[in-house]
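Quick one, T. Sequence first:
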Amino acid sequence: MISISFSLRPWIRFAALACVLSVGMFAAAQQNTSSQNTTTSSQATDSQALPDAPSTATANVPPPIQPEGPTAVLDTSMGRMVCKLYSKESPVTVANFVGLATGSKKWTDPVTHKIMQGKPYFNGTTFHRVIPGFMIQGGDPTGTGRGDPGFFINDELDPSLNFDNPGMLAMANAGPNTNGSQFFITVAPYPSLAGHYSIFGKCDDASVLVAQSITEVPRNSQDKPLQPVTLNKVTIVENGQPLPPIASPASTASAPSTPKLTPRN
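Structure tokens:
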């Protein structure tokens, strides 16, 4: 029995050593798997923390709607403004503005209360309200902000049009469906106006600069310019037609008076 016991000892030692090696290899494998999982989890967390690429974030943002109607050319005492009209999105508002601008639509003079036709409504009016960083407002022959053409039209609030950019041409109103002739042009983004005012045109960048210069004139506590800023003329230009030439400033120099001859006796 003793001899047998001594002969088994090498095998027992080998079996024990194999067991220890197996346990060590299993533990190492477990540690490596855990490390890989931790790395993968960390990478996933880092990936989730990264913001979307600009191209991905803006992929679903629709481009601004481009106006397809005629062009309104507003020649003022401080420069020209050119605004393309949204005849597709705001057909009633555009037709109203064009009819008043050309005189093809009847209107009531807010001063004399006479019905007018064939006479352009806007020519010679003033911008009666100007606010820096916001807008210029005109379209009232009385220059008080209370004048109208003797009628109102309903709102046209197209959801595709907004005030996210400067240069938006829209109707001023005294509440829902009280659009007449008064309009305003923004000089800065004003998203909060969306859904409250009918947008019917978009003015180009050069026009925004003119509007900005108008907002910076000295004004009283009611935001009315101390010196009138006049809308000399509004011209409607159909698509494909050239813009009218810019009128040269009228000369303010008076002609020399003819000397009077006193007859001699």
